[in-house]
């Protein structure tokens, strides 16, 4: 197998533009950019320590500990 040449790449690009149109392609690229920005913001927020979530298992464990003390 060989890599596609410049003409193959151009044919594929023209077909994609004909099928989807310029407006739809630019809209998709805008959505991709928004997703990347959201991902980067999430990675920055990841540096902050997470809050402890109280679950029913935690509450049950506290009740068991209190009953042992009595």
Please compute the radius of gyration using only Cα atoms.
27 Å
Overall pLDDT: 79
The largest sheet, given as strand count, sense and whether it forms a barrel, is: none
String of helices and strands: HH
Describe this structure in words.
The protein has 70 residues and is an all-alpha fold. Helix content is 77%, strand content 0%. The longest helix has 40 residues, at 6-45. It is rod-shaped and about 80 Å long. The termini are far apart.
Task: Describe how the helices and strands are arranged.
Blueprint: H1 6-45, H2 56-69
Please give a quick description of this structure.
The chain has helices spanning 6-45, 56-69.
Key features of this structure:
rod-shaped; single chain; about 75% helix; about 70 residues; mainly alpha
């Amino acid at each position: 197998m060989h890599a596609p040449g410049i003409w193959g790449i151009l044919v594929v690009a023209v077909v994609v533009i004909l099928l989807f149109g310029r407006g739809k392609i630019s809209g998709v690229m805008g959505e991709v950019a928004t997703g990347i920005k959201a991902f980067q913001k999430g990675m920055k927020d990841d540096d902050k320590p997470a809050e402890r979530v109280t679950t029913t298992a935690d509450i049950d464990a506290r009740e068991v500990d209190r009953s042992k003390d009595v």
